[in-house]
Amino acid sequence: MKKFLSAKACSPLAIKSLLPKFETEEKCYKEKQLRVNTLSRSELITARRLAEKLSDCDDEEPCFSFSCPVCVREFRIKKISQLALLCEDYQAWKFVTIIYYDRMTSTLGELSIQRLIGRLRKQLKRSGISDVLIGFFEVDYHPEYQRWMPHFHLLVRCDSTRNITWRKLRDCFNKCGKSNDVDIEVRRPTLVKRLKNPLGLISYICKIKWMRVESYYVEGERMTRKLRLKKVNFVHSLLTLDSLKLSDIEFMHGIRQHGATLRESVLGKK
C-alpha cells in the first residue's frame, strides 16, 4: 500500500460528491478506535501489538496497514480514481464475481490467497481468456456453513462473457466448484453484471473489508445481508489483513501496475 500511495498520480476524484455514502474521515477514525479497543482486549499478543500499531498511526507516520480504516480510506480514494479512469468507457466493462466454493475453510489460517490467485491465472490461461481483468480478493464468513468463502470481485473489459472462452471458464468452475464437506443448495461460482453504476461497483470491488454474511428468508426466498464479524473472527481478519501487501489481494490479468499507473500487458511479455 505504501508504494502505491506514495506514487504520483492524477488528481483524485471528488469522492464526497460522486459517492455520497463513501466513508468519512470522522467515521474511519471512530472505526479505528473500535478496532484498537477490540484488539487490545484480545488474549493474543499479536492482536495487542496490532492495537498499538493502529493507535500510533497518524498523518505524519501512517501505518499503511490494510487493517487500518484510515489508511484504507486513503488507499480507496486513490484506487477508485485510478480504476474510474481505466473504465472511462464503462459500457466496455463488466463486473464479475468468481467464488471458490471448493476452497471454503473453517479458519483463515487454512486459506492460501496466493494459491487461489495462481489457480485463477491458470484457469484464465487454459480457457484462452485474453481480456483485461482487474480487481480484488475478498473472503466473508458464512455462519450457516461455519466457513470462510473466498472470492474475487473483478472488472472485466470484454465484448461478451458468453463466448467460447468464457464458457470454458464457467464449465471449469461448475465441474470443480463443489465443496466436499459443505452442502450448498444453489451454487453460482461465476456471476456477471453490467457496469450500470460504475463508481459504486468500483468502490464495492476495493472495499477491503471482510464481513459476516447472514442468511434469512422472506416468503420462502433466501436473502443475505452483510454484518460486522463477531469478535474472534474480527480479530483474526484484522491480523490477516495486516499481514497482506497490495500484491497479495489485487488481481490483474492482461494489465500491470507501475507505481500508480496501469498499463496493458503486451501479449507474450511480462
Give the helices and strands, then pairings.
Elements: H1 2-6, H2 15-18, H3 25-40, H4 45-56, H5 69-86, E1 93-99, H6 113-127, E2 132-142, E3 147-157, H7 164-176, E4 190-194, H8 198-205, E5 212-218, E6 221-227, H9 231-242, H10 246-249, E7 250-253, E8 255-258, E9 261-264
Helix pairs in contact: 3-4, 5-8, 6-7
Structural key phrases:
Replication protein, single chain, 270 residues, 9 strands, alpha+beta, two-stranded antiparallel ribbon
Please describe what this structure looks like.
The protein is an alpha+beta fold and 270 residues long. It has one domain. Helices cover 40% and strands 22% of the residues. Helix 5 packs across helix 8 and helix 6 packs across helix 7. The chain is globular.
**Shape field:** globular
Q: Residue-averaged pLDDT, rounded?
A: 91
The count of domains is 1
Main beta sheet strand tally, sense and closure? 5 strands, antiparallel
* Structural class label: alpha+beta
* SSE sequence, one letter per element: HHHHHEHEEHEHEEHHEEE
Strand order of the largest sheet: 4-1-3-2-7
User: Which percent band covers the strand fraction?
Assistant: 15-25%
Which residue ranges are poorly predicted, with pLDDT under 50 across at least 5 consecutive positions? none
* Number of E-state strands: 9
Radius of gyration: 19 Å
Share of residues in helices: 25-40%
Number of helices: 10
The span between the termini is 22 Å
Protein name: Replication protein
Organism: Aeromonas salmonicida
